[in-house]
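Human
Can I borrow your eye for a moment on a structure tokenisation matter? Give me a protein, with the fold worked out from its sequence. Write it directly below this note and I will take it from there.

Assistant
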Amino acid sequence: MRATGLAAVLVSTVFGAWSAAMVIETQVPANLFAAGEPVTLGAKEVKGQATYAVTDFFGKTVAEGAAAVSDGQTTIELGELSPGWYRLVCRDEAAEQMVTLGVLMARIGESMPREGRVAADTIGAGGGLVEALGRANIPWVRERLWWSAVQWSQGPIDWKEYPQAAEKLASAGVNISQVWHDSPPWTTPANPQELIPDDLRDLYTFSKTAAAKFAGLYKAWETGNEWDAAMGHAPDKYAAYEKAAYLGLKAGDPNAIVTNGSICWGATPFLRVLLESGLGEYSEVFNWHFYGKPEQYAWNVDAYTEMMAEYGAAERPNWISEGGAPFEATEGEDPHMSDANQRRRCPLTAKNVTMALAAGVDRYFFFCMPHYLERGLEFGLLRADHSPYPVMMSYAAAANLLGQSTYLGRYAGDDAAVEARAFSTPAGVVLAAWSDEARSLSVPTDKSSVRRANLFGAMDELPAADGRVTVELGPDPIYLVDLGEKIKPELSGKVRPAGKLPRNDPSKVVLMGYCDLPLLPERSCYDAQAAADPQAVAYTLEVYNFNEEKPAEGHVEVSVPAGWQVAPERADVRLDPMGREVLTFTIAPKQPRTVADLTGKIVVRGEFDGRETSPAVSLLGFGETALVPTQRQAVDWAKAENWRPDDVRYDDGARNAPAKVAAAGESGFRYESEPKREDAGAIDYFSYAVTRFDPPLDLSEWDGVSLQITPIKGAGMVRLMFREPNGCYYYRTISLAGDQPQRVTAVFEHMPWALWFTGDPNHRLDLDRIAGIKIGREGDDLAFEVTGFELIKLPR
């Protein structure tokens, strides 16, 4: 391919052999034309005569003809096109070339709103997308700052191109939410891969310096990215990291909005530890990631809100700083999605935006605007050549129609199969509506006519009759614009008020407590059994004073569960300005006798100069095998004939990697995933064996399940997952290593919801309706044998 920059579309081939001879280009950013702007393309190095044809998203030919060629060049003038996505194919005597282009709702000269709920993650490329963002009416972006890139060695910071990019975005009226999620190796010399600096004062200093440098340019800061991913990080350490970063950012720019580092695995024990540690005092926006189905947004918002309400943090804004609809795509020199995946992705994205805003998400950042492939999934709104996918236009239409909106409620009408959500906007009441199957929807209005916008914002006028307007619905969302007030009394459902930024005044003394032990992942709990002496666990407490002018004097007290012991229980501490002291306590946990004893909470409270600090909270406990079951019942679930490879294809087009299932003795099965292929991406990442129960089993009398798993090949993460009839899963993570059999116990109440599958409205595993089990790998190639399933009851 031949690069001509963002203002010119690079060329890709779709039909014939690859040729770089003819180059088709435009003079508009990312090939995004504004409504009312003549669509003109130029072609160079044309061989002989040239013909062209233009088709829209729906397959309709909108223009075709012969291009007048002179000296190997031609201009194709298409005039004004309706908002939408278009594919132009041009053929000369040597080759056939294709280019995509879009026409957006917004018109040249219209000012972009200063605020908006529909935003984009530009993954550090925002400076090169300024004009495209303006045309799409997207006033907020999420960028990337790499600490390691600007301060690889301890010493002066080299800000490189960051100030120029920030100034370019800000001068165009684009608000920036900046995130960093790395630490340079000099902050963790003993473990260069660690994300949390050995001394949080280094983090504070960088945070303060960065915020001051970009004050007025970066409107918001995120203190990290997906800290709970795979739950491999300790929440107690991250809680202190968040506090140090917050204090530094506010010292550098008091007006900046600070969010927590994004949460991506749901309302888990990880998040609860953060909230108990005072997360609400050291952040102003709740920040989370979600890639799911439209109906799942409300379930997730409810689960998060319910947990946050316990800690007085539910009324703040919540932002999805990464959302989207990635789909399977090819990799290599010409990465792209199939037409079928582009067709499916486009309406899904509009539905996701609608349902996220209706659920109460205050700002939704699509991940991401530039082309980005991860594990064979395309995340971008733009193609690798910077031309648009159809989803770019549907997302821009949502930004224009719903970007400045207040949710009003659901319009049910007379048909439960219809999804229709109403919003108050500067253009009046807007109803976004669709149905999986063809339906007619009658909507009340006090207008004589109503504008109807399609998926891309192309509008026509619908006349009203007898105070109602009737619209035909299908899987592609449409928008009814300026309906008037008559619909409002007929709206129903939960409406979450817009979030309000809290007024925080946190202590500048920060406590960070932790154990140097591995975590029991689903419980975010240190494993006491991994200690050299499980009855004498070392607990480290770092005490920081982030006041740059005044010393701090006070004490800390450590509390542990009843029956546990801690020594000492209290320590006096005096800290200089920006001082630090490291203390060590010895925890003696009680040997667990019941399920409730498996997890214990360590809470450290401090009081300095007459003011309480937020606590440091850590979880310490034992694996499930520490309890002896009071009852066991063998079940024949491991018989090989009950299992088969799971060949499910997901909504994003990805599918599980091939696997083999064979007998292992008389009562077990052997699972083996086929080797991962370098070019397989998402197709080859997940691999499971599955068994199904029809009718579903009632396991409500049992506390868990036990099984024996024997590694045969490889090492890595295995997931054991239980399925409800609605398709949602709850899981237990197993670390597989070595070659010796290991007995694994999964306690049902410790199994979190696998939110990347179907949502679960009640957020709990329904033990009276177990419809199946999955077991397999997520990532590395593995083989293992499974035998000896048992249902167990544990002491209570």
